[in-house]
Specification:
two-stranded antiparallel sheet, six-stranded antiparallel β-sheet, 95 residues, globular, disordered N terminus, mainly beta
Length: 95
């Protein structure tokens, strides 16, 4: 998400005193929650069918080791995504 200041447009995480961090979905920790801010263009339709869109809140439930899938909660439903897909979804996480 971007905001306008006197110096131009900034990502929320770039603003002074900001307590938000941007992460790839694949980098989230267990039980961490965040809001989707960007999805790679080629994936948008695919993940929209799973309820994942910009502005949606997600919570990491499980992460399998060695390139396994991740499971997130979206709208109170568990959704499994391949690690390659999770690497192309960006979220804002409150730190």
């Amino acid at each position: 998400m971007s905001f306008r200041s006197g110096a131009g447009w900034h990502k929320r995480s770039e603003l002074p005193g900001c307590d938000w961090v941007e992460k790839k979905l694949s980098e989230m920790k267990y039980e961490e929650e965040g809001t989707v801010t960007d999805i790679e263009e080629t994936l948008r339709k695919k993940v929209a069918g799973m309820g994942i869109r910009v502005g949606k809140k997600l919570r990491m439930v499980t992460k399998q080791p060695i390139k396994g899938p991740v499971v997130v909660v979206v709208d109170e439903a568990n959704t499994s995504l391949g690690l390659d897909v999770a690497e192309r979804i960006i979220l804002e996480i409150k730190s």
